[in-house]
Amino acid sequence: MNRFLFNLEEVLYSLFIINLSMPKITEQGVTLNIASIKKDPHKKMPIFYNPVMKSNRNISILLLNSISNTKMHVALPLTGSGIRALRFLRELKKGKIDTIFVNDKKADFVNTFTQALTTNNLKKTNSVKICNDDANHFLLNQHTDDFCGYFDYIDIDPFGTPNPFLSASVSQVKRNGILAITATDTAALTGTYPRSTKRKYWATSLKSYMMHETGLRTLIRKVQLQGIQFDKALTPILSYHKDHYFRIYFKQESGKERCDEIIKQHKYMLYCPSCLNHTTSHFNKETCSCGTQFLFIGPLWIGKLFDTKLITTMAKNNPFPEEQKFLDVLKEESKKDIVGFYDLHVIEKKYKFPIGKMDSVLKKLKAVRTHFSLTGIKTNINIKEIIRLLK
Ligand SMILES: C[S@@+](CC[C@H](N)C(=O)[O-])C[C@H]1O[C@@H](n2cnc3c(N)ncnc32)[C@H](O)[C@@H]1O
Ligand SMILES: [Zn+2]
C-alpha cells in the first residue's frame, strides 16, 4: 500500500499536478518547482529538498564569501533539488565562480535543473554545466594534465555516509581548494553501532556525553586518510555538529611533510568514567591517575576544528540572523580549540554538589562554551582542579 502511494506521489510530481495546487518551496529568494513537503524528507522523494539543511547551505555561502578564493571551479556532485547551486549563483560575490558543475543521477535532473534556472531568472550560460551521471564518474571525468585535481570547491552532501564519494572528491580537489563534507549517519559515528564505526570509519566509538565531538573527529581522520594516500593534506578550517549531521570544510595543501604533520595528530582519546578525566594518547591501554582503566575512542583527529580568523570573519559578516548565535559560539569555542570538554550536568551528577551559573563557571575555570552541548565547557584545567575550584 505504501509503495503504491509512493508511486502515485512520484507520478503526480512528474505530471506537475501537485505543483499546480500546492504552495511552492522558497528559500532565501529562490523558488523550487516542487510542492512544499508535509512529512520528513526521505531518500525516495522525486526531487530531494530538506528545509532543515538551510543552515548548512547558509554557512557554505558565508564561508565561500569569507575566503579569498575567486574564479573557482565549483562541483556539486549530489545536487538534489539544486537549491544550493541556485543560491550559490545568486548569493556568492561576483568573481567567485568561474564554472559551477551541478550533477545528480536522478533521471530527470537536467530538465528539472534547467527549469529551476528559468524559474529563478538565472541564465544557462557557459559557466553552468549540468551533468546527469554517477557522482564518482562525474568527478573523475574532469581531466587535468597533472592529476592534481580539477575543482576549487567540492561539496559532498549525501544521504548518510560520505564514504562512497571520498576517494574521487579528495583526488579531484585542487591545491588550496576546499572540500566540504556532510555526514548524516551520526549513529554510526557516535557509539550506537560500534561495529559500524569500525567498518566505515576505521576507529572505535563510544557513547558518552562527548560523542558528537568524538564522532566529528573520527570522521575528520577518515577523510584525511583518504587524502594522505594522494599526498594531499586536508586541514579542517571549520567543523561542527548541528541538528542531525556533521559538517567539515577542509583546505587542501599538497606535500609529504604536511601529510606527516596530519598523521602525527591522529591519536586516541582516553576517557575515565570514574572521575571524568580525559586526555589523548598514541596508546589505548592506559590507567587514569584515579586508578581506573581509561576507556578509549579513535584513533581520531586531535588537531584544531576551526581556523579562528575565518570563523571570526564569518561571525562578523554574517547576513543570516538565524545563524548568528551558532556562529558566535563557534567563534568563542575556536579560542580554546582543544580536544574534549566537560559537561556541568555530568559533573554535578557524578560529584553530587550544585554547580553555579554558567557565566560564573566560565570565569572561574577560564573556560569557553562549546557548540557540542548547551551545558558543556572547554578548559585546560584538569578535573581535580575543576572540582576544587567549583566546590
Ligand atoms: C541529500 S541529497 C542532496 C541535497 C543537496 N545537496 C541540497 O543541498 O539540497 C542527495 C542527492 O544525491 C543524489 N545521489 C545519490 N547517489 C548518487 C550518485 N551515486 N551519483 C549521483 N547522484 C547521487 C540523489 O539523487 C539526491 O538527489
Ligand atoms: Zn579517573
Helix content: 25-40%
**How much β-strand is present in the residues?**
15-25%
- The gross shape turns out to be globular
| Ligand set | S-adenosylmethionine, zinc ion
CATH class of the domain at 50-265: Alpha Beta
CATH superfamily of the domain at 50-265: Vaccinia Virus protein VP39
| Average pLDDT score | 92
The assigned structural class equals alpha/beta
CATH architecture label of the domain at 50-265: 3-Layer(aba) Sandwich
Task: Report strand order across the widest sheet.
Answer: 5-4-3-6-7-9-8
User: Given the structure, what is the number of helices?
Assistant: 16
Please name the CATH topology of the domain at 50-265: Rossmann fold
The residue ranges in which pLDDT falls below 50 over 5 or more consecutive positions are: 1-21
Oligomer: single chain
Please give the radius of gyration in angstroms. Answer: 22 Å
The biggest beta sheet reads: 7 strands, mixed
Q: What is the CA-CA span between the terminal residues?
A: 61 Å
Number of strands: 15
Defining traits:
alpha/beta; Rossmann fold; three-stranded antiparallel sheet; 16 helices; 15 strands; binds S-adenosylmethionine; binds zinc ion
What report would you give on this structure?
The model is unreliable at 1-21 (pLDDT under 50). This protein has a 7-stranded mixed sheet, with helices on both faces. The protein has a 3-stranded antiparallel sheet with strand order 11-10-12. The protein has a domain at 50-265: 3-Layer(aba) Sandwich (Rossmann fold). Helix 10 (211-228) packs antiparallel against helix 11 (256-264). It is an alpha/beta fold and 391 residues long. The protein is globular and about 65 Å long. It has helices at 2-14, 17-21, 54-66, 83-91, 109-119, 135-140, 163-172, 186-189, 194-201, 211-228, 256-264, 308-317, 324-333, 344-351, 358-364, 383-390; strands spanning 24-27, 30-35, 72-76, 97-103, 128-131, 151-156, 173-183, 232-242, 245-254, 266-271, 278-281, 295-301, 342-343, 368-370, 373-378. S-adenosylmethionine binds at residues 48-49, 53, 57, 78-81, 83-84, 104-106, 134-135, 157-159. Zinc ion binds next to loops.
